[in-house]
Design brief:
It is a single chain. With about 140 residues, the protein is an alpha+beta fold. The protein is built from two helices and nine strands. It has a three-stranded antiparallel beta sheet, with no helix packed on it.
């Protein structure tokens, strides 16, 4: 499906996990072959409404935000409110050792680096859930 209009601006995106904890998780997916961070929560702390959008949408952010007008690439102005939300907390993810102990307990099998991986036990996926709390 093709969109009728090009996006006239790009929102500045932030990693919610980095903002809440100071760094990305050590890993979000683990199998017997790979252990890596491949899941992220990206967000923008800006609300943008072009003149074609509902003009009031940009004004509904936090009253402590700062409104400004930006110029889009198409030449029309856009109202933008900064700082309307922020990531304030993230659910802790297990370390490799904590995961190993949990999987051994759930499966009654000895787990070492050669067979440490998900899914297994109480984890139905090879991805760990990442959860971030936002303040609006």
């Amino acid at each position: 499906m093709q969109h009728s209009k090009a996006v006239p601006y790009i929102l500045p995106m932030r990693s919610a996990f980095v903002e809440a904890t100071g760094s990305e998780p050590a890993f979000t997916a683990i199998t017997t072959k790979k252990c890596e961070t491949i899941d992220y929560i990206w967000y923008s702390a800006s609300i943008v409404a072009t003149n074609d959008d509902d003009a009031g949408a940009a004004e509904q952010g936090s009253s402590s935000g700062t409104a400004s007008t930006t110029m889009s690439t198409s030449g029309s102005s856009a109202s933008q409110r900064q700082g309307w939300c922020r990531a304030i907390a993230a659910q802790a993810l297990p370390s490799r050792e904590e995961l190993r102990v949990e999987l051994e307990r759930d499966s009654d099998t000895t787990i070492d680096d050669s067979n440490l991986g998900l899914p297994g036990g109480s984890h139905p996926s090879d991805h760990l859930p990442i959860v971030v709390t936002f303040e609006l």
